[in-house]
Design brief:
Strand order of the largest sheet: 1-2-3-4-5-6
Order of helices and strands: EEEHEHEEEEEEEEHEEHHHHEHEHEHEHE
Number of strands: 19
Oligomer: single chain
Structural class: alpha/beta
Radius of gyration: 21 Å
Largest sheet: 6 strands, mixed
Bound molecules: fe (ii) ion
Distance between the termini: 40 Å
Mean pLDDT: 96
Strand content: 25-35%
Number of helices: 11
């Protein structure tokens, strides 16, 4: 397995690159905008294909590299379902799996630092975002943070994982890079409490200054996705137009979502399923020259990217559903 930890010394952020091996699909967690070229270089050097990037929550101390990586590599951007609308192209629920070639991550909803904070469990390790830090925990005083929620996320979820589970946080300010559940249980000073009330008392009296980047980073990070206008500009159509067009025999309706998403919300009638990460291969293999393609996905971002992707194939016409299925 390929597992790399990057460090951004300006925001003290850790970013993780994961893949099951050379030549295979890769995933990045919590990328920093200024470092995206560094990640892409390594992805290329190791002959990997970046297909998914995840943010554990809306960060307040740095601008996320999600949008830049999406624009440069056409990868899928992912956050938990509590993230603000339309930030990413795919949202996951608590306990849902995120898959790349040979690797599964399980999303764990761990609110408290923010109300959209998720952790991601991968076999013997867990990416804890700012919920659980090494000998610390993420502050709970902005972005709908709540020390009681965080207490539950810590004591009812993360600390119930096996003690030998490795912890990889989104930040460290003291030079440590990895810990374990067992070490944190025993030695993390914030976790040596007997009740949620006691924990909240600690968290409510930290009196920390706001992060320097907060006023810039939070709005920017809430705006990473393709807005409606950008979606429209990429051959975007309404649902009514989609229905009209798809009555024609030469029209192919393509659902770009993953099987896990289709399980949550079924595909439109008469459509075929081509998961977004397999689109290039599909367009290369199938003879679609005389067809009109209509793409759709969850929020309209993957389908907009599919319009860009399909431009290098000789297809008669391509459209996509603005706002995706979640908007219907
Ligand atoms: Fe944070």
């Amino acid at each position: 397995m390929i597992f790399r930890q990057f460090f951004d010394s300006i925001s003290s952020t850790y970013t993780y690159l994961i893949s099951s091996g050379h030549g295979r699909e890769a995933l990045i967690i919590d990328p920093v905008l200024e470092k995206t070229d560094q990640y892409i270089n390594l992805v290329n050097q190791l002959n990997l294909r970046l297909v998914k990037v995840i943010d554990t929550h809306i960060h307040a101390d740095h601008i996320s590299g999600l949008a830049d990586l999406r624009d440069k590599t056409k990868c899928i951007t992912i956050m938990g379902e509590h993230a603000p609308a339309d930030v990413v192209s795919m949202n996951v629920k608590d306990n849902e799996k995120i898959s790349i070639e040979n690797i599964d991550l399980t999303a764990l909803y761990t609110p408290g630092h923010t109300d959209d904070s998720y952790s991601f469990l991968m076999n013997d390790r867990v990416f804890t975002g700012d919920t659980l830090l090494i000998k610390g925990t993420g502050r709970t005083d902005f972005q709908n943070g709540n020390p009681y929620d965080q207490y539950n996320s810590l004591f009812d979820r993360l600390l119930k994982l096996p003690e030998e589970t490795f912890i990889y946080p989104a930040h460290d300010y003291k030079g440590e890079s990895v810990s374990t559940i067992g070490e944190e249980k025993n030695f993390n000073p914030r976790l040596q409490v007997n009740s949620a009330q006691e924990y909240a008392l600690i968290m409510n009296n930290l009196n920390l200054a706001n992060p320097k980047m907060m006023d810039i980073a939070v709005p920017e990070n809430k705006n990473l996705g393709f807005n409606r206008q950008k979606q429209k500009n990429l051959n975007g159509i309404s649902y009514d137009r989609l229905k009209n067009l798809s009555e024609n025999d030469e029209v192919l309706l393509i659902d770009l979502r993953e099987p896990t998403e289709i399980k949550k919300k079924p595909s439109l009638l008469n459509s075929i399923n081509v998961p977004y990460s397999g689109l290039q291969e599909y367009l290369r293999k199938e003879k679609l020259i005389n067809k009109t393609l209509i793409f759709y996905c969850a929020v309209g971002e993957r389908s907009a990217l599919a319009i860009q992707t399909s431009q290098s194939y000789q297809i008669k016409q391509t459209y996509h559903l603005v706002g995706g299925l979640n908007n219907l």
